[in-house]
Structure formats: structure tokens, C-alpha cells
Amino acid sequence: MKKYFGLSSWVLTVGVGFGVGNLAFHAPSSVSAQNFFNQRAIAQSLPQTDQLLNAGQQQYQRGQLREALATYQTAREQYRRSGGSALEQLRRQDGEAAATQMVGLIYARLGQYQLGLDTLQQAAKLHETLIERAGNAEKNDTTLQIFFKNRSRLRSTLSFLGLIHQRLGQYQKAIAYNLDALARSGRSPGDYALDGEILNTLGTVYASQKQPAKALEAYYQAMQIVETVGYPLGRDSSTGGKPINFIEANKLIYSPQRPNSQDTTNLLEKAIQPTYHAPVRMHPWARYLFVATLNNIGNVYAQVGKAQAQFFFLKALDSSRFTSDQELEAISLNNVGIGYSNAGQATQAREYHQKALDVSRKLGDRALQAKTLTHLGTAFLQANDYGQATTNLTAAMEALESLRPGLSDDNFLALFETQTQTYALLQTALIAQKQPEQALEIAERGRARAFVELLTRRLQPVDSAQITVQPLNIAQIQRVAKTQNATLVEYSLIGNDTLYIWVVPPSGAIAFRAVDLKPLFANRRGTLANYIEQMRFESLGVRGRSTATNRRTRGEQRATSTDLQQLHRLLIEPIAEYLPKEPGSQIIFIPQGALFLVPFAALQNASGTYLIEQYTIAIAPSIQVLELTQGREGGKSQQPGIKSQQSARIGRSNRKVSTGVTRSGRKTIASPSSPIASPSPTPNSLTPSLIVGNPTMPKIVLQAGLPPEQLSDLPGAELEAKAIASLLKVSALTRAQATERFIVQQMPNNQLIHLATHGLLDDFQGLGVPGAIALAPDVPNLEKGDGLLTANEILDLNLNADLVVLSACDTGRGRITGDGVVGLSRSLLSVGASSVVVSLWSVPDAPTATLMVEFYQALLKNPNKAQALRQAMLTTLQEHPEPRDWAAFVLIGDLE
To answer: Cis before residue 715, ω within 30 degrees of 0?
Structure first.
């Protein structure tokens, strides 16, 4: 069976649906929800507001989400009205908590995740308040009921928060919320349903993290709840007697030693006898849990390539009709469709996906619609019906994009990371129809979207929450290439097998090539990302961290540049005929995924010529980001809040001071008093300047359990800063002068910012934005200036800088996502920097100092930053020929 982007076994995992089976409500009112809601004047007495709450529940259970949302919002406002006795006020707040929880839940169901998160957080606070108030109040039936209901609701709300984070792709937060909710279980009959749902959510998170055994363990625990307490009517043993133990049977089937066979299927059938496990004999909550768990076990089986996945999907679909849960039915239909797709039965797959789509549209669940349309598009791709595939995948893309408005940057980032497959599939469908330009529009639309939104909000702060950023079309892409006077080269990774490359020269004539990656791995296991990391270590002698054990000696390094030449054959040769012929012409590469770690300057052709010897090179996360950073004006400065953190690893080498003269009789940079030719006057783009080198280093925890250690002194960085300051006719800030608070205060006031210090790669604040720059700690106010300026803290700044240079280790690295590299460079560009120069690995001291001084000497003569960096690299490689010594730095953003 042909596979597209590895989606033949991608299953729409159910986890826990946004149901309300475990939520406590008042008894349903005899007043119909529709008639109740249509009354113009809704009475505001407490009993009638309770009826409104129940009317919302009825609407929700019928799948009328928007109607239910309006009803719950009205109920919430009425519950908030003051007045009445203390007990009545307690009851009002209890109703408000229930309504608030449901409002948050429906927001999430409708794909408004940020509103869902914010509202459920409010609900959690209300639950906690009510638990405390009811616990301290005079004990009676009402206060006890409120106390226990809100304990249960708090668990539900925590679980729902975890589920939203799971759907956003924020797996650690999802685990934390669900473990918190599970820990609050009383292991009583009232807790069983939610316990099972939490276990299913945890299982889906583990499955998403490629931990199938751990996922199955969670699912088995959920199924054990059904087995133990889910059958109030008992079992039907009239046919076949009691089956073999379900969990033990599954453990045996899942064993890697057991092949896919009819014997395995027979074992499953014995474990799940239809009469013995009849859903009609179960509690309603147990039916839901039974179906959800079957779906999720099937998902794990599909992940590991077990043919019996379809058995679970079919059983789940058959049982879902007993749940009256339309979302669960749609998910089951989708999973059966995927099972048929995996078996190469595209016609049957489309039939089930279409049924699922009809249900999801009826529900108004945009996230479910998007996933269903993606599956339907995949089935059409499998049948080579590229027109229908394009139609459905385009609709899926639009549905996915409708989920993003209002999300915070971190939530947008996490959600976008879960959506990239749809864009890759759509590119595949368009290329199959010989529409490369339309595919380029989708490739551009499917990258750095959170970054683009963030930049746009910074540039247009007024009503920025309402701004809708339109992706670039072909004409706009061509205009960017012409404006930059550069050839744009955009890469798109389609799974692990294919690489798409577009070339857009200033003339606007677009060229396209598809590259088959499979020969690269014909004699080796792994992916392109593995290969690039191996290349960084073996050919360049570096890894991501700059501890001593991560550097290899020259004798240990391979003597050849095979990998750099291989990457040249892969990334450059297929498009070589479309690249400019004029030496030094500008090329801006737009990588994707692991390609962000490729040192394009060091790629070698067959004759050993480095790419930087042929072209001027820069990098951009996307063409639209490049457009937004081009020649923009900075904003007004503001003082950020700085928080201290402790744990880290060093990200810059223990640099050695250069004391010798450079090649060809060039002047030494060992002493700031050395005479250096300095053209005059200094260009406006370089003034005013903030030059920092070798600040007094902060202390950090290098290893858990050990006391903090001070980062090593960098005298070479100090000499570098003083030499550059001399060139620019300013004073360098070094050692105790370069405190974090003072540097942060000065950064918004400077056109040029140069920081020569330690770079650190860790996510200090646990917010998903890794990276930090070491500065001098503020004394004694350490909590406001711990000496670590993190990438997340930079987001609180507002810069006017034309250029920021981070002369430190790994400052161009970070967390690689569908949005590009999330780290220091992204943070700086987001807050106003037009361009940044950052490093891809642990930079050695002496070559770095040489390169940086050469860079500024060239920049004083020519304001084009990319050309200045090229000239600096060409000069440095004459003295330090190893690529690790000169090829680490990249320019991101505006070229001039």
C-alpha cells in the first residue's frame, strides 16, 4: 500500500471526549431547552436559573453546542447576581461554577482553545473557593452536596485542562493536570468514570510521545475499571462462558515476539465476546469508557504495525451506538476508515470518513472536522484522485487555521506543531497535479505561522488581537525576492522520504525540484535529522553542547568532508542550474526541521569549494518573516520583569585567548590597544552601539544535586568586545559593568547590540522557549537580575536594533518546531531586531574573535550584513580552515 507522509497508520486518537457524564447537575427540568431559551424575559430566581442550567445540559447532550454555550453564559450571568441569604449566595456561586465549567468546555469543543483554557482556569478557582466555603459552613445537606460536587468538578476541570493541552500538543502540561486530577480520586464509585477518562488521556499523551507500552498500561487500567465495576446488570455467560482475561490476552498479542496471524485475531475474539461484554449491560459511563479505550488500544496497535488494530476499531464502532455520544461515534468511524486505508481499501475508507465528517459538521466541532477532512484527503491521495484530495485537504487546512485565533504564542506554537501534516499532504497533492507554484504557497503557509502572528502583533499593537494575517501569494513571494535582491531557496520535508525545493530568483521565475531521500539511508538506519546530527559531530567535531566531552580532537575527526559534500549533493546540486552565476550573489535559504542545523556556508561541491566561496548566504524561518523584518522600525522601550533560575548547562566553550598575529601580517587582536584601521564616520546603522564582552559570570547548577558553579571566565570575549568597540569608537562593557539589569535597560536604545559571552541552550523557565545569555548578576537584588537573560525574558523587551550579534555558543539553536527554531533568535526578531547573527554550535574562541572583528571591519565599508559576514568567513578560513572554526554563524533576517 502506498503511504503519504507516513499517515497510513496515523489514527485519530480519542483520548477523552469532552463529555459531561461525570458532572453533577440538578435534575432535568420539564421545561424544554428550546422553549426555555426562547423566552425573552428569563426569570432570575434561583430555581429558574437552575432550570436554565439544565436546559443547557440538554442542548449539549443533543450536540447543540452553540445553543448550549449561549444558555450557559446566560445562566452564569444570572448566578452572579447578588442578594439572598448566605446559603443562597453559596448556591449561586455553585451554579456559577457549574456554568463556567461548561462554558470553558464548549469553547474547547468549538476549537476556541485559549478561551477554553482561560474559562476552565476560572472554573477551577471557583471550585476551590466553594470547597473551602462549603467545608467551613454549617453542615447540612446543601453545604455537603456543594462540597462533594465541587470536589468532583475540580477533578473534571483539571482533566479537561489536561485534555486541551494534549490537543494543543503540550504533553507535559497535559500529564501534569491529569496526574493532579487522578491523585484527587477517592477511588469510590463516583470517581470511577473520571478515573478511566484520565487514564485514557494519559495513554494518548504517552502514545503521542512514542511510548506505546506506557500508553497500553494506562489503557489496561481504564479497561480494568470497566471490567470490575462497569456491569450493574452482571454478565451474560450463556454463550461460550467467561472469556479469557482481556488484559492478559492483549499483553500477549502486543508482545513483539507474536506475529500478526489468525491465531491472534481468534485470541482477541475470545477475549471480547459480544454477549459477555454487551454494552447494553454496562453503566452509561462504562459504555463510553469501553468504547474510548477500545479505540485507543487500536491506535497503539496501528502505531506498532499490528494488523489487529482494525478489530478494536470495528468493535468500538459497534459499541459506540450505545453511548449516544456523537463525538465518540465520529472518532470511531474515522478510526475504522483509517484501518481500511491501511489495508489498501481506499473506497471503504472514504465511506467511513464521509460518515464521520457528516457527524462532525452536525456537532460544529472544527478540530474533529479538520482531522476528518485530512483523513478523507489522504484516502483520495491513496486512490490517486488528486483533485478530490486537494479539495478536502484545503478544507482541512482552513478548518485547522480557524482554531488559532486568540491563542497565546506558546499555545499557538504547540497547536501548529500538531497541524503540519495536513500542509505536507496538500503539497503532495498539488505537486502530483504539476502545480508547484500553488504548492509553494502552501509550503509557505505551513511554516512559521505563530512567528508571523507574533511579529504582526508587535508591528500593529492597536487591536492586534483582531488582526488576521493573510499568507503570501506567489506574486508577493516574487516581490520579496526582488526587494531583497536575493535568490530565495525554500525547502519542504515531506515525511522522511522526500524533499521539495523551490528557487525564486529576483527575476521571479520559479523553479522546483523534488529530491528522493531514500538513497541517503539505503545503507544506514535513521532519518535526515539523525544524519545531520551525525555530520555535525563527525565532520565538524561539534555537538549541541559545549562541554569538554562534546568536542572531538582533530585527530579523532574524519579527515574527509564526505558528509558536507553529501549534503551539498542533496540540497544544492538538484537546483544548481537555477542558482545565480555571479560570484557573491545573495541566497536566502528557508529551511525546515533539521535543515535549520545545516551550516550552508560549509557545504562543499565535488571540487572542495565551499558554498560561501560562491555566494552570500542568509537564513530565514519563512519568506513572510523575511518580509516582516525587512527595514522595519523598532517600538518603544519598556522595562521587562526578570526572574531568576538555577539549572543550566554551559553553551559556550572555555575560550582560549589569541595571542598570535593573523595570517598575511594582519594585526593582533590580543590587546585592545593594538592599532586597528577604522573607517570614518561610523554608519548610522551601527550607532548607537552596545558592545558587551566577558561579563562577570553568574553561578548556575551544572548538575542536579550539586551546588551552583560560576561559569568560566572568557578573556578572549573581552578582548573581542574591546577590539570591536575600538572600531566603532565606543566603550565596551565588560565584567561587573555588564549587569543584566543595566544591559536590559540599554538594549532598547541601541541600533547595534553585540554580546560576547556564554550562551546556554536550556529552557530555564520551563516555558518552551530555550536559550539564555550570560550577563553579570545584579547585586544584591538577585531575583531581578540573576545574570541569565533568557529567551522568554527577551520577549518582554521592545527593541529598535538593526542588528543583534550573539557571539556565543548555540545561540542559533533551540527547539525545532513546525514554526522554525524557537529560541534566542526568534525572541530577538519578535521584539524588534531587524536581523540577528547567531551560532549553530559551540564556537571556539580565537577563530570567533577573528571572525567578529573582520565582520565589523567589512560592515563599516559595506552596510550589507550578509556580505560582511561572508567576507569575514572567507578571511577567517584562510587562518582557520576547519569549518567548525568559521562556519558556525548565520545571519537571520534583513540583509541590509
So the answer is: no
What is the spatial distance between Cα 489 and Cα 495, in angstroms, rounded to a whole number?
Answer: 19
Q: Tell me the three cell numbers of residue 127.
A: 471550585
Question: In the predicted model, is pLDDT for residue 330 greater than 90?
Answer: yes
Closest of 575, 647, 561 to residue 607, by C-alpha: 561
Q: Indicate the burial class of 530 (C-beta count within 10 angstroms; 0-12, 13-18, 19 or more).
A: middle
The vertex-662 CA angle with 673 and 598, nearest 5°, equals 115
**10-19, 66-75, 160-169: which has the highest mean pLDDT?**
66-75
User: What do you get for the CA distance between the two ends of the chain, in Å?
Assistant: 50
Which grid cell sits at 822? 524557537
CA distance 520 to 609: 22
Distances in whole angstroms, Cα of residue 593 to Cα of each of 410, 590, 671, 721: 18, 10, 41, 33
Region 521-531: mean pLDDT is 73
Helix (H, G, I), strand (E, B) or coil at 641: coil
Mean pLDDT of 487-492: 98
- Specify the pLDDT at position 662: 23
Region 174-201: what's the mean pLDDT?
Answer: 90
Query: Looking up cell 478510526, which residue turns up?
Result: 335
Is there a contact between 242 and 276 (Cβ–Cβ < 8 Å)?
yes
191 vs 381: CA distance, rounded Å: 44
3-state secondary structure 685-721: HHCCEEEEEEECCCEEECCCCCCCEECCCCHHHHHHH
Residue 255: which pLDDT band, with cuts at 50, 70 and 90?
Answer: low
Contact 130, 93 (CB under 8 A): yes
Using CA atoms, how far apart are residues 709 and 742, in angstroms rounded to an integer? 23
Query: Which three-class secondary structure state does DSSP give residue 733?
Result: strand
| Burial of 103 (C-beta count, 10 Å sphere; 0-12/13-18/19+) | buried
Distance CA 299, CA 318 (A): 17
Give the 3-state secondary structure of 92-143.
HHHHHHHHHHHHHHHHHHCCCHHHHHHHHHHHHHHHHHHHHHHHHCCCCHHH
d(CA 635, CA 794): 14
Overall residue count recorded for the chain in this entry: 896
List, for residues 339-389, the tens digit of each pLDDT value: 999 899 999 999 999 999 999 999 888 989 999 999 999 999 999 999 999
Most confident segment among 7-21, 303-317, 638-652: 303-317
Residue 891 C-alpha from the chain's centroid: 23
381 Cβ contact partners less than 8 Å away, ≥ 6 residues apart: 4, 389, 425, 428, 429, 432
Q: Are 638 and 780 in contact (CB under 8 A)?
A: no
* Cα–Cα distance measured from residue 726 to residue 853, given in angstroms and rounded to the nearest whole number: 10
Neighbour-count burial for 656-666, b at 16+ CB within 10 Å, e otherwise: ebbeeebeeee
CA distance 206 to 195: 17
Assigned C-alpha cell, 579: 542558482
Q: Are 715 and 756 in contact (CB under 8 A)?
A: no
Determine which helix (DSSP H) or strand (DSSP E) holds 879, and give its type and residue range: helix 865-879
Three-state DSSP class for 588? Answer: strand
pLDDT at 735 (0 to 100): 95
Q: Which three three-digit cell numbers place residue 15?
A: 483520548
Which of the given ranges, 42-51, 116-125, 675-684, has the highest pLDDT on average? 116-125
Rounded to an integer, what is the distance from CA 702 to the centroid of its chain?
27
Q: Are 769 and 792 in contact (CB under 8 A)?
A: yes
Q: What three-state secondary structure class fits 22?
A: coil
The string over 246-275, giving b where at least 16 C-beta atoms fall within 10 Å of a residue's C-beta and e elsewhere, is bbebbeebbeeeeeeeeebeebbeebbbee
C-alpha to C-alpha distance for 689 and 685, rounded to whole angstroms: 9
